[in-house]
């Protein structure tokens, strides 16, 4: 099946919002999604964007039964490690279920949909090949890795749900490592009233 990977634009925000909801439903956390199409338009496509995105798109003849041609996306932003310097963080990586495992030549590939926190031991190049096959998800992730390397990044970081053991095992077998297990770091968050309270002088 033919598909293309391209930079997201503001006109894609409606479909990105739809796929964010689909991803949250898969992860069983849909009640936590508060971001709207308008938020995405403002936060990703203003003068100083908070995130960047890429889109996977298929031709009209391969559109879904609902009429969608935008069938996958990745969101990312640049960050900084006080140890390693420039880094890129992949917030989301998603491919609609009926398009997972599809290669351009029509063969089945090992596909990805989830995310894992992956700080490769040598370089971002290794992270770029943490997924085998040539599916749509792999193409999206490879593009994020390419963008990171082009920006001089040394790390690609992302997260995986603890119940997605098959994906985590696969990443570990590729030379990636679990930051929590190996280094004892936990991902912490402060939000809502706690964030308001913390901001008080």
From TrEMBL:
PANTHER family, sorted: DIAMINE N-ACETYLTRANSFERASE, DIAMINE N-ACETYLTRANSFERASE 2-RELATED
Domain N-acetyltransferase: start-end pairs: 133-175
Keywords for the protein's UniProt record, in alphabetical order: Acyltransferase, Transferase
Lineage: Eukaryota, Metazoa, Chordata, Craniata, Vertebrata
Transmembrane segment boundaries: none
Domain of life, source organism: Eukaryota
Pfam families from the UniProt entry: Acetyltransf_1
Similarity comment: Belongs to the acetyltransferase family.
One example GO MF annotation: N-acetyltransferase activity
Name of protein: Diamine acetyltransferase 2
């Amino acid at each position: 099946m033919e598909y293309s990977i391209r930079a997201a634009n503001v006109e894609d925000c409606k479909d990105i919002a739809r796929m964010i909801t689909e991803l949250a439903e898969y992860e069983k956390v849909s009640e936590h999604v508060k971001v709207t199409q308008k938020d995405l338009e403002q936060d990703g496509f203003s003068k100083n964007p908070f995130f960047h995105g890429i889109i996977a798109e298929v031709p009209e003849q391969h559109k879904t039964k609902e009429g969608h041609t935008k069938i996958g996306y990745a969101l990312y932003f640049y960050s900084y490690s006080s140890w390693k310097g420039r880094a890129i963080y992949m917030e989301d990586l998603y491919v609609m279920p009926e398009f997972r495992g599809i290669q351009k030549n029509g063969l089945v590939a090992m596909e990805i949909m989830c995310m894992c926190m992956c700080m490769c031991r040598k370089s971002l190049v290794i992270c770029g090949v943490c997924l085998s096959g040539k599916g749509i998800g792999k193409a999206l992730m490879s593009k994020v890795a390419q963008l990171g390397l082009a920006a001089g990044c040394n790390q690609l970081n992302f997260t995986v749900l603890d119940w997605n053991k098959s994906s985590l095992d696969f990443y570990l077998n590729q030379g990636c490592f679990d930051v929590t297990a190996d280094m004892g770091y936990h991902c912490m968050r402060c939000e809502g009233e706690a964030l308001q309270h913390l901001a008080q002088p």
